[in-house]
Amino acid sequence: MISLSGPRAGNGSPLCQFQGFLMQMFPPADVFWTTAMALDVYLIVFRRYDAEALRKLEWKYFSVITTLVFIPAIAFLFVHTEDKGPMYGSVTLWCAINPSWVLYRIIFYYAPIWLLILTAMVLYALIGINILKRKQAFKAISNDSFPLENVSHNDVDSDDANAQSLDGGSTITIYRRPPPNRSSLSFRQYVLMPLMIFVVLLAIWVAPTTNRVASFTNPGYLSDPLLLAVGATGSLRGFWNGVVFITIGMKARKGKTGAG
């Protein structure tokens, strides 16, 4: 009901324009952050980033993502022509980029979103291949511990012997090489949870994109089941992400607390 209030108020109403601004800014930001999570997983697997290194990237993510989504969202508030009207207007369920400006909606909304989704898909494909090649992949899943360093057992278990000659005799000193500093991250929290959030994101954007492409190719096209799917998925983005966090992220945290 809240989403329909914008279209009912009219395209030029402050409520509709505010809805359009929110729809242009936050759904793409959600996709940007999901792609950033995929990049984090990539850095964990391929570059051995730990939690501290990932935290240092957060302000960079925040600055870049906020800038990229805020500039077009605020700029479109001031776009208005006599022929097409305001940039933001009714799209049946809520206000977003007006169907009269559908080409701009594809260029500035759906195209970047699907480019980011494809980027995340490539990253997760590379990550999956790398993890499956590791001997400890299934052990990491069962133990909820993803190692950040590849440690050879020979390096840890072998003894070193140094021989030194003193006054014609020889003294052999045998000592055990100290094990390297091992570190690991929660597999569920840093690998599985971002992956599941991406899967949810992918499912969420299928219906809206299908609806928009159909509307673009056939301006008079209207499908009630498709609109229902758009409303059920698009309006509940935060809910589905919350489900993933509670079922996977919280379980990982409880596991770490119990282990501690």
Can you describe what's shown?
The structure is a single chain. The protein is mainly alpha-helical and 260 residues long. It has one domain (2-259): Rhodopsin 7-helix transmembrane proteins (Rhopdopsin 7-helix transmembrane proteins). The chain has 9 helices and 8 strands. The strands form 4 sheets. Strands 1-2 form a two-stranded antiparallel ribbon. A two-stranded antiparallel ribbon has the order 3-4. A two-stranded antiparallel ribbon has the order 5-8. Helix 2 runs parallel beside helix 4 (102-133), helix 7 (187-217) runs antiparallel to helix 8 and helix 7 (187-217) packs antiparallel against helix 9.
Quick structural overview:
By secondary structure, the chain is mainly α. It has helices spanning 2-9, 14-47, 51-75, 102-133, 137-143, 153-157, 187-217, 224-234, 237-259, and strands at residues 80-81, 85-86, 88-90, 95-97, 146-147, 159-166, 169-176, 184-185.
CATH architecture level-2 label: Up-down Bundle
Could you tell me the strand content as a percent range? Answer: 5-15%
The tally of strands reads 8
Number of domains: 1
Shape: elongated
Tell me the number of helical segments per DSSP (H or I, 4 or more residues long): 9
Q: Kindly provide the radius of gyration, computed on alpha-carbon positions and rounded to a whole number of angstroms.
A: 26 Å
The helix/strand class is mainly alpha
Query: Tell me about the biggest sheet?
Result: 2 strands, antiparallel
What is the CA-CA span between the terminal residues? Answer: 46 Å
What CATH first level would be assigned?
Answer: Mainly Alpha
CATH 4th-level superfamily:
Rhodopsin 7-helix transmembrane proteins
- Stretches where pLDDT falls below 50 for ≥5 residues? 150-166, 170-182
Order of the strands making up the biggest sheet = 1-2
